[in-house]
């Protein structure tokens, strides 16, 4: 469960980016966040993942108030999340297999079990044949899919994706949306920021719309 109560957010020296935002997301929901460029979508996702803290108001993740959470507890909170951000944050000196392996190794999963999960994740995003390739040799869309494989490999309870289909052609964008939908069907909470209103039309979901930092929910 993620809950915001009257959340405001400004960065040092910035205007108010999010204004009086209250929302609740239950476990297993599929949520799309839409809005114009600069509306505050990425900021909202960062607050949901505990990457940013609110300037005022309350953000609860599970039953933890992130403003009161000690820094050393953050890594434990982060394990709940699979994060896919616009700048993939791939490791360019490691191959695809090794990139996807990283969250598993951090959680102490290695060897045969790790290999099985890594290949299953690569297979889901259509990159099984690229496991030994270096990320720099992949197209933008392939790098995006690699970031998705890495985010889902440790089976997070909550998947947060910022414009995950931004660089993809229509067919792959549809596949990726189907993939996210499938994760939701097995109980994962999936939260996706997107410009792509077409891609989400036929998917039943909660819609959060931001306009200059003000939220409406439908
Ligand atoms: N670290 C930061 N410091 C200062 N201002 C920031 C920071 N991050 C974002 N902003 C500002 O906050 C506003 C909202 O940015 P945000 O990235 O949340 O919007 P967005 O809706 O995700 O935009 P886009 O669709 O273009 O990615 C923008 O005006 C941006 O310049």
UniProtKB/TrEMBL annotation:
Keyword Lipid biosynthesis in annotation: no
UniProt topology in membrane: Peripheral membrane protein
UniProt similarity note: Belongs to the ABC transporter superfamily.
GO biological process assignments: amino acid transport; cell division
Function: Part of the ABC transporter FtsEX involved in cellular division. Important for assembly or stability of the septal ring.
A GO molecular function held by the record: transmembrane transporter activity
One GO cellular component, as annotated: plasma membrane
UniProt xrefs under Pfam families: ABC_tran
Protein location: Cell inner membrane; Cell membrane
Identification of the protein by name: Cell division ATP-binding protein FtsE
Keyword Translocase: yes
Domain ABC transporter positions: 2-217
Source species of the chain: Methylobacillus rhizosphaerae
Phylogenetic placement of the source organism: Bacteria, Pseudomonadati, Pseudomonadota, Betaproteobacteria, Nitrosomonadales
PROSITE patterns: ABC_TRANSPORTER_1, ABC_TRANSPORTER_2
Subunit structure: Homodimer. Forms a membrane-associated complex with FtsX.
Keywords from the named record: Amino-acid transport, ATP-binding, Cell cycle, Cell division, Cell membrane, Membrane, Nucleotide-binding, Translocase, Transport
